[in-house]
Write a structure and sequence with these properties.
- There is one protein chain.
- The chain has 24 helices and 13 strands.
- A hairpin with a 2-residue loop joins strand 9 and strand 10.
- Helix 5 packs parallel to helix 6 and helix 20 runs antiparallel to helix 21.
- The protein starts with 10 loop residues before the first helix and ends with a strand.
Length: 531
Amino acid sequence: MKILPIGRQNFEAIIQEDLLYVDKTRQVYELLRQGRLYFLSRPRRFGKSLLVSLLRHLFLGKRELFKDLWIGQHSDYDFPAYPVLQFNFADFGLKTRKLEEELSGVLQAYADDYSVAMEMTSIATQFKTLVQNIAEKAGRPVVLLIDEYDKPIIDFLTEIEKAEANQRVLRQFFGPLKGLEAEGHLRFLFITGVSKFSKVSLFSDLNNLTDLSIHTLSSDLLGITQEELLFNFQAHIEATAAKFNMAEGELLKQIKIWYNGYSFDGETRLYNPFSLLSFFLNRELSNYWFATGTPTFLVETIRDKGISPQEFEEVKVSEAFLEKFSLSDIHMTGLLFQTGYLTIREVIYRGMIRTFVLGYPNEEVRHSMMHNLVEAFTFRSASVVSNALIHMQEGLEQGDFTLFMNHLKVILSDLKYNWQPPKQYKTEAELLQMWEGYFHAIMYLITAYMDIFVQAELAHHKGRLDLIVTTEHYIYIMEFKMDGSAEEALAQIKSNTYTAPYAHSSKKVFLVGINFSNEERNWEDWVLEEM
């Protein structure tokens, strides 16, 4: 059983130490065959840095590392060596140093390594003269590999002035690329990052740069397909199934639900490599990818902008939408897609025009996103939320609604002291409507987090029912009021015949009215009645 390369990004070390490696060299060969200048955006922890490392060793001509891989056995590639310059912006210490200072230091180090001079004026001039002089000295064009190009921007989304300053420096750095390519000084360019929201302004002059982000060439370039899972991980599958005394087929079904589902073409489904490797290392279903980076900025923005979390279950966007990102106009759906919290579930064609249907890729992401949103919306700590959600789920599953409501009160207890509505809500009516929507969102998030069936704001011929929660033995039909009464909410369920579809259900059906208080910012009273 091969050792799993958790957190390992050095291709040479993985091959030399005979660690488990999913061979992607067939896809890389297609990139080499079809083009020279590429951009690729993918979420974090998806294998971008390992791919960049592979490209580095490929262009250095290290044939021996590839002798057992597809490109070494099934292709005509002859592994010529080129000068390679690699820039990893994730390694820059931008919390303590300026981007321009860091870049200048890296450029000078390369000038020293290749024993060439460069003009010490602007970043653009340093970069241009460095590449020109290396190419002329080597007698061969240069390979440029740029990893996490957007790190100096996305790390400062809450400090826009700093992000914009870094964007200006990056624009200088990338400025010479078109000229270098036209002069024949570039053999290959590969740029990776998480986002594309700053792509247009940084690379606009490089009009022959192929964007691989939703391109067929990259549909399985990163990530692990079902076939690759079965071929490469069989020993780990057998060992994990034995641990749980579970049939391999059932284990694979659970792994698929939790970690599969990413897609960048609407057809090819991928596992997140980090999550899959972490699962087989720990042999426990858990939230591995999400735990490596808490999306504080994302969840707080969703809360503060009054965005309904339910919107992200299914979102339809145009192809143009996926291309439009800027610091001055960050759209949350687009940002969630770029950062991996949403993925392409389906592509709908109308003639040659594509519409993309986005949604959560799998249970790991959906489950974790709901938990983090509950924390953000209620201002409670992860430990308090986790404990309360466990008891609330037990209450729903056991028909003990008092248990559910008692812990709901605990979760909401800090709202009064921590949450001030955005300034755009000015009148009393607007505030009440805002609070009603806010509590709707919290109730949806709490119940959607649990492994139960939830339908929120369900359309009905006489109105819109707030929430239906279905467990193994119970159905809860819920209606919410704001500064009204629980009895009034219950009466609305009855008068609008919301119960009609459940008249012959084999499950016990409860009607639930809950009244929330604007002043207390918690529930004020509730009533439950069996149908």
